[in-house]
Design goal:
There is one protein chain. The protein is of the alpha+beta class and 132 residues long. It has helices spanning 91-108, 113-116; strands at 16-25, 31-39, 43-48, 58-62, 68-77, 80-85. The N and C termini lie far apart (67 Å).
């Protein structure tokens, strides 16, 4: 049986680990690329390319499928931050958008490991190889 948390502690919903590219829109309109590291219906944790938004800042996150969520930053450190969402996130719609994104990339051949990471083996003249 799980212990009952003290009444002064906030219990957050279990987050699902994910790697999702998204855009963060600050109140002043500045747009920043972020990577969401975990997500639940009520919040998310993310890493920003630049400095993370500060605690208490209200921000908008644009997810795949153009799903937008508003919320408030609850913690930050360096380039990482966590935010509490104003309204529950539709995790099923997010999952469908991620599946569509993966399918489009697969069908178009846009993302292939062999195209992005070519191994180039230099050609060597066999007469110049020294035997050991």
């Amino acid at each position: 049986m799980a212990p009952i948390p003290p009444t002064d502690q906030v219990v957050r919903e279990q987050r699902q680990p994910r790697i999702i590219r998204a855009r963060l829109v600050h109140r002043d309109g500045e747009v920043q690329d972020i990577v969401i590291r975990n997500v639940s219906a009520t919040g998310l944790g993310a890493s920003a390319r630049g400095p993370a938004p500060v605690r208490g800042e209200r921000v908008l996150v644009v997810l795949p499928g153009e799903q937008e969520v508003n919320g408030i930053v609850r913690w930050f450190g360096g380039h990482t931050f966590g935010m509490q969402l104003d309204a529950p996130l539709d995790l099923e719609a997010l999952g469908r958008a991620l599946q569509r994104q993966a399918h489009v990339a697969q069908v178009s051949g846009e993302w292939k490991v062999e195209n992005r990471h070519r191994v180039i083996t230099p050609m060597t003249d066999p007469s110049r190889i020294r035997r050991v």
